[in-house]
TrEMBL record, chain A:
The keyword Translocase does not apply. It is found in: Cell membrane. Pfam families: AzlC. Its main location: membrane. It is a multi-pass membrane protein. The chain crosses the membrane at residues 20-39, 132-159, 165-183, 190-222. InterPro entries: Brnchd-chn_aa_trnsp_permease. This is AzlC family ABC transporter permease. Belongs to the AzlC family. Residues 226-245 are annotated as: Disordered.
UniProtKB/TrEMBL annotation, chain B:
Keywords: Membrane, Transmembrane, Transmembrane helix. The chain crosses the membrane at residues 6-28, 40-61, 81-104. InterPro entries: Brnchd-chn_aa_trnsp_AzlD (IPR008407). This is AzlD domain-containing protein. It comes from Prauserella alba. The keyword Transmembrane applies.
C-alpha cells in the first residue's frame, strides 16, 4: 500500500494525487447518501449496491432510484437513466486513447469513465500523466463510491442530506476547476459558451440528460465560426496536446 | 412495489446500455485513425459537455432554479480556480460557501 502510494506520488506529483483523493472522499460521501436514500425510500438493501457496481454513474443512479421509488414504470426509469448516460459516447471518443490496448483494459477503462475521470484526464498535459491520472482517479472513485454506498445502505439516514455539507456545490466546482484551463483556447471557449446557453435554455422543457447533449451544438457553431482559417494550421501532435490542456 | 426480479433486470439493462455507450468510443477508435482535426473536435466536445454539466448542475435542480446557495458556492470556487488557487481550496471553499449560506437560512 505504501509503495503504491509512493509510486503514484512520483508519477502524478503530490498535488494531483491529493486532488484525486479529495474527490474520491467527496464521492464516497455522496455514495453513502445514495445508499441511505435508496434504502430509506423502501427499496431493497441490495439495489443501491448492484446499481453502483454495474452502472457506476451517480446522476443516472439517483434518477433511476427516484423514479422507481415514486412508483414509476421500470422501463421509463431505464430509459431516463440511459438518456442521462448518453454523454459517455462523446466522452469515449475524446479520451478513449488513455485506456491502452487490449480488450480487458479497454473494457475496464470504459466502465471507469465518468465525469470526474474524464475531467482529470483532459486536464493533464502529457499522455503518460493523463493515463496514470485516469486510472488512479477511476479505480479510487470506483472503490470509494461502492464502499460509500454499502456504508450508507447499512448505516441509514445519518448522512442522507449532503446538501447540508455543500457537496452539491463541490461537484460542479470540481469539474469547473478541471475544465477552466481548456477554456484558454478561444474557439473552445466560444463552443462552451454556446453549449452552456443551449443547455440552460432547454433544461426546463426537456428530460434530464438531453440538454447537456444539445450543448454539443456549441461545437458546430464554434467550428462554423472559425473555418479552416490560418488560426488553425496543420494540427501536429504537439499543438493537439496544447489544445487539450 | 416493483418486484425484485424486475429491479434486477432493469438494473442490468441500464448497466449494459451504459457500458455500450462507454465502450463505443474506445472500440471504434482502434478501427479508424482520427485526423488531428477530428481529435481536436473530440476534445472540444468533451470540454463543452463538461461545461454544460457544470452550468446545469450549478444552477438547476429538476429543471428549476436550484436556489442561491449552490450557485454562490460554485461561483466562489470558480473565481478561486480562475485566480489559480489550489484545487483543494477551490472545492472546500465551494462546499463551505454553500453550507454556510444554508446555515444562515439562504435556500
Amino acid at each position: 500500500m505504501r509503495s503504491i502510494w509512493r509510486t503514484l506520488t512520483s508519477r502524478l506529483g503530490p498535488g494531483l494525487l491529493r486532488d484525486i483523493v479529495l474527490v474520491c472522499a467527496a464521492d464516497g460521501l455522496v455514495g453513502a447518501s445514495f445508499g441511505a436514500i435508496t434504502v430509506g425510500s423502501g427499496l431493497p438493501l441490495w439495489l443501491p449496491m448492484l446499481l453502483s457496481l454495474v452502472v457506476f454513474a451517480g446522476a443516472a443512479q439517483f434518477m433511476f432510484v427516484g423514479l422507481i421509488a415514486s412508483g414509476g414504470n421500470p422501463i421509463a426509469a431505464v430509459v431516463a437513466g440511459l438518456v442521462v448516460n448518453a454523454r459517455h459516447v462523446p466522452f469515449g471518443f475524446a479520451i478513449g486513447d488513455v485506456f491502452g490496448r487490449g480488450l480487458a483494459r479497454r473494457a475496464a477503462g470504459a466502465h471507469l469513465m465518468i465525469d470526474e475521470t474524464v475531467a482529470f484526464a483532459l486536464a493533464q498535459r502529457d499522455s503518460d500523466r493523463r493515463r496514470v491520472a485516469f486510472w488512479t482517479c477511476g479505480i479510487g472513485l470506483f472503490v470509494c463510491w461502492n464502499v460509500g454506498v454499502v456504508a450508507g445502505a447499512f448505516g441509514g439516514t445519518v448522512i442522507s442530506d449532503t446538501d447540508a455539507f455543500g457537496l452539491d456545490a463541490a461537484f460542479p466546482a470540481v469539474l469547473l476547476a478541471l475544465v477552466l484551463p481548456s477554456l484558454k483556447d478561444r474557439s473552445t471557449r466560444l463552443a462552451a459558451a454556446v453549449g452552456v446557453v443551449v443547455a440552460l435554455a432547454t433544461s426546463p422543457v426537456l428530460p434530464a440528460g438531453v440538454p447537456v447533449l444539445l450543448a454539443l451544438a456549441g461545437v458546430l457553431v464554434a467550428r462554423g465560426g472559425t473555418p479552416d482559417g490560418p488560426r488553425d494550421p496543420a494540427p501536429t501532435p504537439q499543438s493537439r496536446s496544447e489544445d487539450v490542456t | 412495489m416493483t418486484s425484485p426480479l424486475v429491479l434486477v433486470v432493469a438494473t442490468v439493462v441500464l448497466g449494459a446500455g451504459t457500458f455500450a455507450f462507454r465502450f463505443a468510443g474506445p472500440a471504434l477508435r482502434t478501427r479508424v485513425t482520427l485526423s488531428g482535426r477530428a481529435e481536436h473536435l473530440m476534445a472540444t466536445s468533451a470540454v463543452v459537455l463538461l461545461a454544460a454539466l457544470v452550468a446545469t448542475s450549478a444552477l438547476l435542480a429538476d429543471g428549476e432554479f436550484a436556489g442561491v446557495a449552490r450557485p454562490a458556492g460554485v461561483a466562489v470556487g470558480g473565481v478561486l480556480a480562475w485566480r489559480k488557487a489550489p484545487f483543494v481550496v477551490v472545492v472546500l471553499a465551494a462546499a463551505a460557501t454553500a453550507a454556510g449560506l444554508r446555515l444562515l437560512g439562504v435556500p
